Amino acid sequence: MNLSDTFKLFALSFALVATPALAGSHGNGSATIGLANIPQYRNQSDAERECKGDAVVWGSSERRGVFFAAGAGPTRVGGFYACMAVARKAGYQIVGN
Q1: Do residues 37 and 21 make contact, with C-beta atoms less than 8 angstroms apart?
Q2: pLDDT tens digits, one per residue of 24-55
Q3: Rounded distance, CA 93 to CA 95, Å?
Q4: Quick check: 68 and 96 in contact, CB under 8 A?
Q5: pLDDT-based confidence at 17, cuts 50/70/90?
Q6: Which of 9, 15, 25, 28 is 20 to 30 A from 46 via CA?
Q7: Smallest Cα–Cα separation from 72: which of 53, 90, 48, 97?
Q8: What is the pLDDT of residues 67-94, one digit of tens each?
Q9: Rounded to an integer, what distance in angstroms lies between the CA atom of residue 44 and that of residue 47?
């Protein structure tokens, strides 16, 4: 095995190990922001479908541990959506509710 093959094997093994920590194929995964590990959704429509009857909140990647209700918080650049009841139960701060 030459150096190029070794590098390819290393890169492939790293990708396989890192994949579970990334968001899933439709943008969903879980977030750990220093409190609890909760389901997160990259798209608001995914969150609304999964939260069924619960309000959807938005978590900024810049303000760890804080979620914003609809109409509150900074411009949505980077971050994710979650179900309000789940975020509140996990101990996250909810702003604008």
Answers
A1: no
A2: 334 455 544 455 789 999 988 999 999 999 99
A3: 6
A4: yes
A5: very low
A6: 15
A7: 97
A8: 998 877 776 667 889 999 999 999 999 9
A9: 5
